[in-house]
Write a structure and sequence with these properties.
27% of the residues lie in helices and 26% in strands. The chain is built from 5 helices and 7 strands. A 7-stranded mixed β-sheet has the order 2-3-4-1-5-6-7, with helices on both faces. The longest helix has 23 residues.
Length: 198
């Protein structure tokens, strides 16, 4: 993996990788990180106030009363020799300038999508397609455990290239999230291998 490293405090043979979880406001990023983190997840959730309604679009957020203002952070050991550090981005437009810093050094990314509010997903997909060199996958979050649209329709609606993996994921289910993280890492390894083949 291109960005994997081994900090000096880790035993020899153990690698770590940074993975970014991105997406619009209220798509489930904080939930996803918290579902799999083996440490108490760090989050920067803040209460939304009446004053913020003029700058933070809340349409379709399902009564959500807090928002991430910096990042979410968690850690998961995927294998005895691989530790994954998860960084969740803030979803509100006024915090998007932080994405460059959060993506620096990342091996891969998951763009989480809510098909009930596809318009909230366009900026994240656009960022990773055009403004970032971090390989990414798109994951449709299964709110209420239900897939409401075929993945082909979601791909077409978001204009996602065929080369970008598109999967479903229930952000509340640990096994589902782990599968998504592994898909993201595999995507990075495939793209890295393809780049070095003469």
């Amino acid at each position: 993996m291109a960005s994997a490293s081994t900090p000096s405090h880790m035993p020899t043979g153990i690698s770590s990788a940074k993975l970014v979880v991105a997406g619009g406001f209220g798509v489930g990023k904080t939930t996803l990180v918290g579902t799999v983190s083996e440490i108490p997840p760090v989050n920067t959730e803040a209460w939304m106030t009446e004053a913020s309604k003029t700058v933070d679009p809340l349409t379709g957020a399902g009564g959500k009363m807090t928002t991430t203002v910096a990042m979410d952070f968690g850690r998961i050991t995927l294998a005895w020799d691989l530790i994954l550090y998860l960084f969740g981005t803030p979803g509100q437009p006024r915090f998007w300038p932080m994405w460059d810093d959060l993506c620096r050094g990342a091996s891969s990314a998951v763009v989480l999508v809510d098909t009930r509010r596809l318009d909230a997903s366009f900026p994240a997909v656009n960022y990773f397609e055009n403004d970032s060199d971090v390989p990414f996958v798109v994951a449709v979050n299964l709110f209420d455990g239900v897939q409401t649209h075929p993945l082909g329709q979601v791909r077409e609606a978001l204009g996602i290239a065929d080369t970008v993996p598109l999967v479903t994921c229930d952000a509340r289910d640990r096994k589902s999230v782990v599968r998504t993280l592994l898909t993201s890492l595999t995507n990075t390894m495939d793209k890295t291998a393809a780049a070095v083949v003469p």
